[in-house]
Design brief:
With 283 residues, the chain is of the alpha+beta class. The protein has 5 helices and 13 strands. It has 2 domains: 232 residues, paralog of FGE (formylglycine-generating enzyme) (Alpha-Beta Complex); 39 residues, no CATH class.
C-alpha cells in the first residue's frame, strides 16, 4: 500500500485597489513604486489535510463517501513532519518606498545597453519575436556591467541596482502575509513549460508587478548563505548570489515567494529585474 501525504499552503491576499506611482526610463524600462512596510521572512507553517493524499486501497478501506480512509497513525506522522519543518520566521521592515521593475528586463532592453543579445531563446531556437522575452543566460557579474552602463546613460536622473532579497520578496508578496496557495500560482506564474514567454502575459500581483514567480529565475543583490531559508542578516561574502522566483520549467513547489536559491545560474533560466533610485526632482 502506498500513501503520499500532501502539505497544503494557504494565503491571505491584499487587493490591488489603487495604482502606485510609476516611472519609465529612457530605454523603456517601467517601474512601480511600492510602499514601505513590514513582512515576515522564512515563515513556514504547513498544514495537513485528512483527505490530502493518494493511496492504493481496497473497497473495504473507504468511508461512506468512497474516499480512502486515513489511519490515525498516518495522520499523526504527517502532523509530526509538519511540526518538525515549521518555522516562525523573522520580521523585516522596508523603511521607505522604492521603485522596482514592473517586468523582468527584456532582450530588447539588454541590446539597447550592451549591443548584444546573450539569450538562448531567440533566432532559430524559438519562432516568436523575442524582443519582449526576458533576457537570460546572464551571470550576476554581467548584470553589474549592464547596470554600470545604464547608470552612465542616465547619470543625473537615476541610479540603478539589483533589489535586495528582502526588497524582492516584499514586492513579490504585495501585502500577502503567507506564501502563495497552489491554486493561485498558475494565475500569475509561467511555469511547467518548455520555454519562457514575453513578459507581462500572466496576471500581475496585487501591486501590479508581473512575472515575480515563474518565467525566469531572478538575480538579487545578496550573497547566498548555502541554506534553504534566508538569514536575518545576509552574508557579507560568499561564492554565489541569491536567485528568486523560479522559472518557466519550475512547478508549484518552488514557484513561491519564500524560495531561496543560489547561483551560479548563467543558463537559459536566469534573468533579473531592477530597482531604481530617482535623483531628486526627476520624479
Amino acid at each position: 500500500m502506498y500513501r503520499i501525504l500532501l502539505i497544503l499552503l494557504t494565503s491571505n491576499l491584499v487587493a490591488y485597489t489603487q495604482p502606485f506611482a510609476t516611472y519609465t526610463n529612457s530605454i523603456g524600462i517601467e517601474f512601480i513604486e511600492v510602499p514601505a512596510g513590514s513582512f515576515t521572512v522564512g515563515k513556514f507553517e504547513p498544514t495537513t489535510s485528512q483527505f490530502g493524499f493518494l493511496q492504493q486501497y481496497r473497497k473495504d478501506e473507504t468511508d461512506e463517501m468512497g474516499l480512502p480512509k486515513l489511519k490515525g497513525s498516518d495522520y499523526e506522522a504527517a502532523k509530526q513532519f509538519a511540526l518538525r519543518d515549521a518555522r516562525t520566521g523573522f520580521e523585516v521592515t522596508i523603511s521607505k518606498p522604492f521603485y522596482i521593475g514592473k517586468f523582468e528586463v527584456t532582450q530588447a532592453h539588454w541590446k539597447k545597453i550592451m549591443g548584444t543579445n546573450p539569450a538562448h531563446f531567440q533566432g532559430n531556437n524559438i519562432a516568436d519575436n523575442t524582443d519582449n522575452y526576458p533576457v537570460e543566460s546572464i551571470t550576476w557579474k554581467e548584470i553589474q556591467l549592464f547596470i554600470k552602463k545604464l547608470n552612465q546613460l542616465e547619470k543625473g536622473k537615476a541610479v540603478y541596482r539589483l533589489p535586495t532579497e528582502f526588497e524582492w520578496e516584499y514586492a513579490a508578496r504585495a501585502g500577502n502575509k503567507d506564501d502563495i496557495a497552489w491554486n493561485e500560482i498558475n494565475e500569475t506564474a509561467h511555469i511547467a513549460k518548455l520555454t519562457p514567454q514575453a513578459v507581462g502575459q500572466k496576471k500581475p500581483n496585487a501591486w501590479g508587478l508581473y512575472d515575480m514567480l515563474g518565467n525566469v529565475w531572478e538575480w538579487v543583490a545578496d550573497y547566498y548563505n548555502e541554506k534553504i531559508f534566508a538569514d536575518p542578516v545576509p552574508p557579507k561574502k560568499a561564492k554565489q548570489h541569491v536567485l528568486k522566483g523560479s522559472c518557466f520549467y519550475g512547478d508549484v513547489k518552488n514557484a513561491t515567494y519564500m524560495t531561496h536559491a543560489g547561483g551560479p545560474g548563467s543558463g537559459y533560466d536566469t534573468g533579473f529585474r531592477l530597482v531604481v533610485e530617482l535623483v531628486k526632482g526627476d520624479r
